[in-house]
PAR1 protein (Sesamum alatum), 185 residues
Amino acid sequence: MASSLSALALALALALFVQGTLGTIECENLNKDSCAFAVSSTGKRCVLEKHVRRSGAEEYACATSQIEADKVKDWIETDACIEACGLDRSALGISSDSLLESRFLGKLCSQKCYSGCPNVVDLYFNLAAGEGAYLPKLCVAQGPKARREMAEIKSSGYVAPPPGLPEYAEGVEFLYAPAPSVAPF
């Protein structure tokens, strides 16, 4: 019991130390190896962008997206979560397309990722909801059923509403998907 309390105290102290040394996170100040899946101090998600110069040379830069993270700020995703969730630090932008890949969905829904990487789960939960899907349901249905469900959603043209529904859309019914509690299946 005492050793687990000591380990918890050490982990907390280390987290506070890392937070203190990093200060505030601005996406534009992050390098290519820490940009993807990071969250700025303002709660906006960071995205890696590729720019091609006239000479043909490629440059990578980190930018602030308009996508907000739920309950997460000042976050650089750990290498352990990147690996556990089947992510790639060199991913450009943010897309729900990877939810159509059964191998990725299997890693995302794994115990290690789903229970241990709340930032990643929050991101993909919201991306799935934007496509009209419910991530926990996709995780339960993994395999061909999940792919079929996402394909049906994409072909239906159904899209969840943006925040601040415009007046002309009043009376239209939208599917509401609450944010998940990070718990294993």
The longest helix spans residues 2-22. The radius of gyration is 18 Å. The longest strand covers residues 58-68. Residues 21-156 form one domain.
